[in-house]
Amino acid sequence: MLRWFLVSLLSLTVLLLALFGAGWIWIDHRDLAAFATPRLEKKLGRTVHIGALHVHPGAWLTIDADDISIANIASGTRPQMMTLGHLGAQIRLTSLIWGPPEARNIVISKFSGLFERTPAHLPNWRFGPHQNEPRAPLTPEEQAKADTPPDLGNAPGLRNATILDSDVTYRSANGASYRTTLEKVEFASTSDSSPFTMTLTGAYNDTPVSISAEMEPINDLRKTPARPYATTAHVTSGDMTSDFTGTLTDPVNFEGVEGHTTVTTPTSDTLFSVAGIKGDHAPVKLTLSGDFSHSGDDWHFTKAHGTIQTSTMESGDFTLIEGSHGKPDDVTAKTGFGCLDINGLMPILAPSGAKGSKKGPSTLHADLLLITPPDPDPLVHFELTARQLIYNTLDFSNLRIQGAQTPNRIEIPLLRLDYIGASLSADGRIEADGTSSRVSADVALTHGDIDRLRRVAGLAPVPVKGSLNFRITASSKNVHTLNEAISRADMTAAVSMEKGEIAKEIVEAASMDLRLLFRHAKGVTPITCLLGVLQMHQGIGTVIPLRLRTGAGTIAAKANFDLRRKWLDLVFASRPFSTSFFALDVPVRVSGPFDAPTLSLAKWSKVGRDMLADSNAVTNLPPALQGFAASNACARPTR
User: Fold this and answer.
1) Dihedral sign, CA of 393, 395, 396, 400?
2) Same domain, yes or no, for 526 and 601?
3) 212 with 232: CB under 8 angstroms?
4) pLDDT tens-digit map of 270-315
5) Given 192, 223, 254, which residue is the final one in a domain?
6) Where is this region: Disordered (predicted)?
C-alpha cells in the first residue's frame, strides 16, 4: 500500500512537471497577441492592435511586444491615441509572488501618445462604455477622490529602463498643442534602497531640453504621500539653466510639489521659444530664484527675487489657477522692484517688429503695446511697485500700479508715482476698439513745482514761483501703443495754484503800467489764485479760461495752439478794476510760430476781440473737473 502511494505520488509529480515543462515550452514559443487583444479591447472600449506579444519564462520573466496601438475616441484629431513600436522588459518571477515586483532591462521605443480634449471638452483618456458621453462636473466628494494620490506601497523596483525616439502631446480644447519629444530617457537604481536617477534628452515644442535628476530610493517612494519624496533636478535648454530642490507627495502626477528653484539665462531665447514668441528679439538677461509649489489646479512661485535686464526684482509672488470646463486660467502677480527700467525690458514688452524690439535695448523709443484680446487666457490680475521707474528719458519714483486683464478690457484702477517732487495718481482703462484699442484715463498731479517742471521741459526761467495742481481727463481711439495714445489723445485739463508769487514787473508789463517808463519794478507780489483749463483734440487745443490774480492786478487770457504745426495764438489783458491808476490795461495778442510769434494789439482784429470776450467766459468742464475748478477763487469771472 505504501509502495503504491509513493509510486502514485511520484507519477503525479512527474506528470505535473511534464505539464509545467510543456506549458513552459508552449508559452515560450507562442504569440499571445491574439489572446491579449480582445481582452484589452473589452476593458478599454477601444480598438486595440498588437502585432506580436511573447513571454519567455525563467527566473526573470521576459516580455516582448511589437507594433501596439490603441484607437482614439471618435472625435479625436488622429486615428490612434497611442502607438508603440517596441516594448521589452524583464520581471523577477519570485517578485510576482512575494512582491513588490522588480523589473529590469525595460526598453520602450517609438512610443507616441496624444492626450487631448475635443472642442466639446471630452478627454480622450477616459475609457469604458460611456467614454464618448459628456459628464457633469464632479461633486466635491468625487473631486476629492479623484485628487487622492495613488497608493505607491507596491511600486515596482526598477533597476534600469530606457525610452527611445518617443513623444507625448497634449492638445487643449481650443486646439493649442504642447509636444514633448523624448529622444532618450534613462532610469536607474542599483537596489530599492539606493538613489533613483533619471536623465532625459528631448525637446518641448521643438525647444531642446536636457534634464538630470537624483531622487530618493524607491523604498522611500513607496511611503508617499504620507512622507514627501525628495528630489533634485538640473535642467538645461540652450543657454538657460534651472535647478530644483524639493519634495513631491505624488511624483507620478507631479503633485504636492514644494521646493526652491532658480532660472538663469543671458538671452531668454529658450523662454521666448517655449512661450511661442517668434521673430527677432533682443537678448534679455534673466536671473530669478524663489519657492515653487504645485497642488491640484494651483501653481505658485513665491519669494521670487533676481534681475531682468537692468531691472532688479526684490519680491515676487505669482499664482496660476488652472481653468476648468473650458474656462481660462487665472494668474495673479505681485511684484516689487528696486529699479524698473522699461527701456531695458522692451524686448519682452514689445513684439517683433514693434519699436524697441530690434537687437539691443531701446533707450529713447520705448513704447508699450496696448492689446485687449477678446478671450484672454490666462486672465491676469497684477500689482506692481517700484522705488524707481525709468521710461524713455523720464525717471519716476515710488511707483504703485494695480491692474486686471479681462475679455476685451484692461482695467487700471490705481496708478501712483512721484516725479520731480510732484505726486501723480491716475486710473484708466484700455478697451477693444475693432482691431485697435480705445484708452481713457483720469489723472491728478499735486505739488508740481513750477521751476522744476519748466527745467524738465527745457524752458527758460520764468518769474513765477509756486506749486501747481493738475486734473486731467484724456481718451484716445483707434490706437495700438502707449506713445500713440498719448500723441493722439483728446484731453481736458485744469491747472490750479493757490499759493505762489510772481515778479511785480510782469504784472505791470502785462497791464502796460506807465510807471515802467520811469522806473523798474522790483520785488514780487503774492499770487492769490491761478486757474487754467485746457481742451485738446489730437494736438490742437484751447486754454480757456486762463486767469492769474495777484495783489498787483488780475490777468485774464485765452490761447489757441497746434502742437503739430508748433503754432500759437494768445490774447491776454489785465482787468481794469484790479490794476493801478497808471495802468493802460491794453489787451495784447501774441500769434504765430512757437519760435517767432508776432506781437499786436488784440482789439485790432475781430479774432482778437472774440478771444478777449471768451477769456472771461465760464468754460463747461466735465464732471471729473468741476469740483476741482470750482474750489479755486479764479473760477469766478472777473469784471
Assistant:
1) positive
2) yes
3) no
4) 877 776 666 666 788 999 999 999 887 788 999 999 999 889 999 9
5) 223
6) 125-159
Start-to-end CA span in the chain (Å): 144
- Torsion angle of C-alpha atoms 390, 391, 393, 396, degrees rounded to 10: -50
> 329 and 352, same structural domain?
yes
- Going by their DSSP bridges, the two strands 394-406 and 196-204 should be labelled as unpaired
* Assigned domain for 56 exists: yes
Cα separation of 129 and 46, whole Å? Answer: 9
Three cell numbers written together for 487: 500723441
Question: Which cell numbers hold the place of 365?
Answer: 523709443
User: pLDDT tens-digit profile of 120-129?
Assistant: 778 888 888 7
- Among 380, 404, 419, where does a domain finish? 419
Dihedral (CA of 154, 148, 229, 288) sign: positive
Domain contains 245: yes
DSSP 288-323: EEEEEEEETTEEEEEEEEEEETTEEEEEEEEEEE--
pLDDT in tens, 607-639: 556 666 666 665 566 676 777 777 777 776 655
pLDDT tens, residue by residue, 508-566? 555 444 444 444 556 677 878 888 888 888 778 887 777 777 766 677 777 888 877 77
* pLDDT category of residue 453 using cuts at 50, 70 and 90: confident
The number of distinct structural domains making up the chain is 3
Nearest to 75 by CA among 121, 128, 111: 121
Give yes or no: residues 162 and 275 share one domain: no
Helix (H, G, I), strand (E, B) or coil at 183: strand
Domain that holds residue 66: 24-126+152-223
